[in-house]
């Protein structure tokens, strides 16, 4: 059977005559047997497309671990750093441009938060789709698509005649972030061991949010010298082009590692593992995984709601904090440093907090992180000056550093590899929907109260309540501290 070549080959095909998933051999362009034999009814993780040289990877020869896959792990860290650049360039300069460049009237909180609402809703939807798509077509292709979507963003900001163009650019940013950030995390979890999940997610989020913080500071200075529009055009275009080049040339698809883990789990000797949800199909549909993550499993539901609420803090730092600081006569570079303090502490602490949870478990870092973060948000209103605001932002960043990688690691602990990509995607759906819900809540709270300060109290209280729900309904998920019973 002859098929036309495509830039990314090895598209999956369903051999209905034999009930198997097959893929196209790039040398012969013939339909070959599946990498791991599965029937059509088992059309889930194994149906993935193979990209570049993935067809040559035999599952039995693939090794899991950071050191064993250090080159590819490093490439994925660079990718998420660039994803952070794409997000960070929108967080310092763009909110400050609302009034000066686009005439958004001071006090128009709902209009000001509209672009973050759009970002959150779109990114949440793309997270949901990205996990499932990556199990069908591979991680690398989804990553590539995400960067292609980002290409128009710098040009749209540069040309934008109205605030609606910024909202449209933010929609594209949401698609980019949902596809690319999800894939960098999933790819790292594919190639590392279960006892490295906290460290893996911690390194991923450190790199990403270091990029966010660095981009926020750099673009603040660039905007002062080149102007906000031209500065964002140059910075944004450079980040996207470099990311696309690295994706095409050096990133490998990691789905075969997930396939190998799934195959090994089925043939492994009885032993302890994570407490996976019960009553779930061996190859669940998207709807079934969504139900498990959202309400059927109380632990995963508690984690998902915590993920949603913690994004209220990020929405506040993105859209309200810069406006608050500018109203206090802070300059753009000073705004960049305060927002950057939050991002640097958040990102830097994850170098340690992810590894910490591998040693002591996920539960307490997540719960205490929610409460510490809420306290940091409230602190902003309790003092004045650049030093105090930076300290308050750092406390909030420390709380985020404790909770952020470990909520994701907790999801990975108690979801099996066959549908872990979908589970992470749905968790990220709920988490990033928090951008939209949080930004809307911020806008309504500030508008009804008539003052921007009420938004800070809204977020702080939400974090304390959500942390309490997490404490009450969740449990320790690390297999070493709370394992499932040995399976016969």
Question: Explain this structure to me?
Answer:
It is a single chain. This protein has 488 residues and is mainly alpha-helical. It folds into two domains: 1-43, no CATH class; 70-262 and 285-473, MFS general substrate transporter like domains (Growth Hormone, Chain: A, Up-down Bundle). Helix content is 69%, strand content 2%. The chain is built from 16 helices and three strands. The chain has a three-stranded antiparallel beta sheet, with no helix packed on it. Strand 1 and strand 2 (20-24) form a beta hairpin. The radius of gyration is 22 Å and the shape is globular. The model is unreliable at 1-56 (pLDDT under 50).
Major beta sheet, strand line-up:
1-2-3
Share of residues in helices: 55-70%
Distance between the termini: 44 Å
**CATH fold-level topology of the largest domain:** Growth Hormone, Chain: A
> Total helix count?
16
Under the CATH scheme, the architecture of the largest domain is Up-down Bundle
**Name of the CATH homologous superfamily of the largest domain:** MFS general substrate transporter like domains
What multimeric state do the chains show?
single chain
- Dominant shape: globular
CATH first level of the largest domain: Mainly Alpha
**Order of secondary-structure elements:** EEEHHHHHHHHHHHHHHHH
- Strand-pairing-aware structural class: mainly alpha
Q: Low-confidence spans: pLDDT under 50, at least 5 residues?
A: 1-56
Number of domains: 2
Radius of gyration: 22 Å
- Main sheet characteristics: 3 strands, antiparallel
Give average pLDDT, whole number.
Answer: 84
Q: How much β-strand is present in the residues?
A: under 5%
Count of DSSP strands: 3
Keywords: Cell membrane, Membrane, Transmembrane, Transmembrane helix, Transport
Pfam family, one: MFS_1
Domain Major facilitator superfamily (MFS) profile: 72-478
Membrane topology: Multi-pass membrane protein
